[in-house]
Every structure is written in structure tokens, then in C-alpha cells.
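Per reviewer request, we include the raw input and output of the structure prediction for the construct analysed in the revised manuscript.
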Amino acid sequence: MTRITIDASFWTRLNNLEGPVEFCDESGRTLGYFHSVATPEEIDQLPASLISDEELERRRREPGGRSLDAILADLERQ
């Protein structure tokens, strides 16, 4: 991956934008898209998981499923 460092004057044009940004050349041809990364503060406020610990435990206790050997055997028959 190529890495490009953005100087402070260019960053001020990107800062505080909401949503993705489309980069175009002078003729209007799309060069690429920019999606900002969440700040450390925003990341800290995200839930650790979208599934509760209780739901994960319920799923662990649920019987059923098949062995990997059985799944592979079915795939070889196809």
C-alpha cells in the first residue's frame, strides 16, 4: 500500500467532514475515496460486542452442529 502524508493545510479541508469524501482531478474523474478513521475517543465508546455475554453463553450451550469431517465429506460429494 502506498502511504501519502497530508500536510496541515490540506487536513483542515478534510477535518470535520461527515461521511466519505470523493477525490477528483480537475476534469472531474474520480481518483479515489477517503473514509476517515474513528478517533480513539469514538472507539472507546463503541460496544465491545454487538452480542451480549448472555447471548454468547446461550449459543455455546446450544446442542447440535456437525463435525468438520462430516462437512468436508458432504462438500466432496458435490
